[in-house]
Design brief:
Length: about 240
């Protein structure tokens, strides 16, 4: 069951239930890092929805699932137990937090995320978590499809070149050898795919606040978001 917060918009609203803050935007816009730090500043949970999709993709990859075969997908989902704890995700008890970040699983995730059964499965889990506790959640359809009534919604944007540089640096830090040009090429393809998905397409919610992150540090972006959250929901109920 979805939480029932008041509609996001101008003005201040005191909390009457779990606070849901959504951060959407294209791949490489810095959503995960910003969402994690914002949640920490607010004293609430960070929910990495992308990791949930990646974990399902990893499971499907291991089992050789044909994502176009609904029966195979249904059996896969029935066998899965996902547990998200801080910045770690567990698949049937196994910590797969690092395994899901490889380029191979990134490509597999793009295919898995197009499957309505997968999205329905994970959206139900995400809403169940939000019904129990306040959280910051990020993805591409959190403010439009998953939590349309979230109190505060953000849409982060950055140039393709800047996003590719960020992703390339992430790969380098993890010891993954991949050319910047390849990262940029795949990111542009991902942008095209994400905007055209039949279910859960990347789209800015009408009431989302757009934040341009080019030239801003993570902490600067978090400061901007925090001010907006405070102006929307007041300060009495926040973690700070």
């Amino acid at each position: 069951m979805e939480p029932s917060p008041s509609h996001s918009g101008s003005g201040t609203h005191e909390l009457s239930g779990p606070l849901v803050v959504t951060i959407d935007g294209p791949a490489g816009a810095g959503k995960s890092t910003v969402a994690k730090k914002l949640a920490e500043r607010l004293g609430i949970r960070y929910l990495d929805t992308g990791a949930m999709y990646r974990a399902v993709a990893l499971a499907g990859h291991r089992q050789g699932v044909n994502w176009h075969d609904n029966e195979q997908v249904r059996r896969l989902l029935q066998s899965l137990e996902l547990h998200v704890e801080q910045d770690r995700i567990f698949l049937n008890g196994e910590d797969v937090s690092d395994l899901i970040r490889s380029p191979e699983i990134t490509r597999e995730t793009a295919r898995a995320a197009d499957v309505p059964l997968v999205r329905e499965f994970l959206i139900a889990q995400q809403r169940a978590i939000a019904a129990r506790e306040s959280l910051v959640t990020e993805g591409r359809d959190q403010g439009t499809l998953v939590f349309p009534d979230a109190r505060v919604k953000f849409f982060l944007v950055a140039s393709p070149e800047e996003r590719a540089r960020r992703r390339w640096r992430d790969f380098k830090e993890k010891g993954i050898d991949i050319a910047y040009e390849k990262v940029l090429e795949e990111l542009l393809q991902r942008d095209e795919q994400d905007s055209r998905r039949p279910f859960g397409a990347l789209k800015k919610a009408p009431d989302a606040i757009e934040i341009q992150t080019d030239g801003l540090s993570v902490d600067q972006v978090v400061d901007v978001l925090l001010k907006h959250v405070r102006s929307h929901v007041g300060t009495n109920s926040l973690g700070e």
